[in-house]
C-alpha cells in the first residue's frame, strides 16, 4: 500500500461518528491520533476544544512566506447502522477501499496529511505556510468550522486560498448551494372525526400548503438560476400530524428544505416565504424560524488561487474546469472571510453516507499527486 492508503486505513479504524448534539467527545480520539502522527512526521500540531470535549486539530508546516494555504476537512462521519461492510475495518476489493469515512471525508484527510509530511521530509523550498484544519461536526450543524473561525485561523494572517476536502471525483468545485430548513404548522380545532363539517382540518390545510409550495412557489425560483449550480429549489421532506384514526387533527407539521444560491441570505429567504404563506393563510398557520441555515458558495474562477489549482489539475491530466454541486460544505463558512475556496477530493458524493462506502484507490493516489503539486506552487 502507498503511504496515503496506509494512513487512510488507520484513520478509518478510529470511530468518529457525529453524536448529533449528545455531549460526547466523538472526534477527539481521531484528532489526537492526527496530532501525534503529524508530530512524528516533522509537523507541528495543536488541539482546540470546540464543545463537549470535541476537538479540532491544526497541523502546520511553516514556509518561506507567512502567506498560508489552508487545507480543511472534517473529522466526523455519519452513523454506521445498516452498513453492509465493516465500518471500522478497512478492506480493499478490486481497487476500492471500503469503510465508514473512506470517501467522506477521511480520504481527503489522508491526502492532505501525507502531502504535508512528504513536503516536510523533502527539504524542498516551501513557498507558502501550510495549515491543515481537521474539524468536528460538519455532518450536523458545522460547529467545527465555526470554532475554526472563532479561533482566528481564517480571520488573522494572510490565507491566500483554501482547499476543502470532500468527495468531488477529482473535480474542482467552486460553487455550491446553501439551505434554509424550517417547519410549517397548520392548526385546527380538532374534534371527533364523525363530525368533520364546518371544522378546519389541519392535515387538509397542510396539503394545500404542499400544493402551493410545489406547484407555485418552487417553479418561481427558476428565474434565479446561477452559473454552475442552477436555480434555488424547495422540497417538502417531512410531514407529521394527527393522534388517532377517529380524531380530527389539531395540528400538522411540514418540514421543508429550501436550497439557496449565491446572493441569497437564508434568513431573508425565510422571511419572504413566511410573508407569502401568511398572505394566503393569515390564521391557523405558523412558520417557525429556521432550525438549520447554511450559505451558498461561489468562488470566482479568476482568483489566482483557483487558477493555480486549475493549472495543477491540468498538468495532472485531470479536468480543470470549475464545477458546481447542490450540497453544502464547510467552504461557504471559510469564504465569509474573503478566502478563495475550492472543494476537492477523491471519491464520489454518491458514495458518501452509503451502506458500502468506498473510495477508489486510483483516485486517492491521484488526489495525493494534485495536492503534492499544489503545495509546491508559488501563488501570486
Automatic annotation (TrEMBL):
InterPro entries: Bact_exopeptidase_dim_dom, Peptidase_M20, Peptidase_M20_dimer, Peptidase_M20A. It comes from Actinoalloteichus fjordicus. It comes from the Bacteria. This is ArgE acetylornithine deacetylase. GO terms for molecular function: acetylornithine deacetylase activity; metal ion binding. Transmembrane segments: none annotated. Residues 174-280 form the Peptidase M20 dimerisation domain. GO terms for biological process: L-arginine biosynthetic process. Pfam families: M20_dimer, Peptidase_M20. It is an enzyme of class 3 (hydrolase). Keywords: Hydrolase, Metal-binding. SUPFAM superfamilies: Bacterial exopeptidase dimerisation domain, Zn-dependent exopeptidases. Its EC number is 3.5.1.16. PANTHER family: ACETYLORNITHINE DEACETYLASE (PTHR43808), N-ACETYL-L-CITRULLINE DEACETYLASE (PTHR43808:SF31). The keyword Metal-binding applies.
Amino acid at each position: 500500500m502507498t503511504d496515503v492508503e496506509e494512513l487512510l486505513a488507520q484513520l478509518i479504524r478510529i470511530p468518529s461518528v457525529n453524536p448529533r448534539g449528545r455531549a460526547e467527545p466523538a472526534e477527539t480520539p481521531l484528532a489526537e491520533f492526527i496530532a501525534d502522527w503529524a508530530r512524528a512526521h516533522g509537523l507541528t500540531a495543536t488541539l482546540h476544544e470546540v464543545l463537549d470535549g470535541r476537538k479540532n486539530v491544526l497541523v502546520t508546516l511553516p514556509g518561506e512566506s507567512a502567506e498560508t494555504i489552508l487545507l480543511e476537512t472534517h473529522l466526523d462521519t455519519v452513523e454506521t447502522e445498516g452498513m453492509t461492510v465493516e465500518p471500522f475495518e478497512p478492506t480493499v476489493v478490486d481497487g476500492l477501499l471500503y469503510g465508514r469515512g473512506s470517501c467522506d471525508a477521511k480520504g481527503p484527510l489522508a491526502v492532505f496529511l501525507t502531502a504535508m509530511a512528504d513536503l516536510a521530509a523533502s527539504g524542498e523550498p516551501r513557498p507558502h505556510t501550510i495549515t491543515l484544519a481537521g474539524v468536528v461536526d460538519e455532518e450536523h450543524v458545522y460547529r467545527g468550522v465555526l470554532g475554526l473561525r472563532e479561533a482566528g485561523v481564517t480571520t488573522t494572517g494572510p490565507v491566500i486560498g483554501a482547499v476543502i476536502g470532500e468527495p468531488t471525483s477529482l473535480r474542482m468545485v467552486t460553487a455550491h448551494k446553501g439551505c434554509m430548513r424550517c417547519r410549517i404548522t397548520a392548526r385546527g380545532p380538532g374534534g371527533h372525526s364523525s363530525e368533520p363539517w364546518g371544522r378546519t382540518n389541519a392535515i387538509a390545510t397542510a396539503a394545500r400548503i404542499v400544493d402551493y409550495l410545489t406547484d407555485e412557489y418552487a417553479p418561481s425560483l427558476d428565474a434565479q438560476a446561477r452559473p454552475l449550480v442552477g436555480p434555488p429549489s424547495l422540497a417538502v421532506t417531512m410531514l407529521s400530524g394527527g393522534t388517532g384514526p377517529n380524531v380530527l387533527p389539531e395540528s400538522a407539521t411540514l418540514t421543508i428544505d429550501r436550497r439557496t444560491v449565491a446572493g441569497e441570505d437564508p434568513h431573508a429567504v425565510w422571511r419572504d416565504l413566511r410573508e407569502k404563506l401568511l398572505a394566503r393563510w393569515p390564521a391557523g398557520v405558523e412558520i417557525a424560524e429556521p432550525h438549520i441555515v447554511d450559505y451558498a458558495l461561489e468562488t470566482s474562477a479568476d482568483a489566482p488561487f483557483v487558477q493555480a489549482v486549475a493549472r495543477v489539475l491540468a498538468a495532472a491530466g485531470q479536468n480543470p474546469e470549475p464545477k458546481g454541486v447542490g450540497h453544502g460544505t464547510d467552504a461557504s463558512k471559510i469564504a465569509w472571510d474573503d478566502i478563495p475556496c475550492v472543494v476537492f477530493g477523491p471519491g464520489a458524493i454518491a458514495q458518501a453516507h452509503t451502506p458500502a462506502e468506498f473510495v477508489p484507490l486510483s483516485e486517492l493516489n491521484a488526489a495525493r499527486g494534485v495536492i503534492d503539486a499544489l503545495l509546491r506552487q508559488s501563488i501570486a
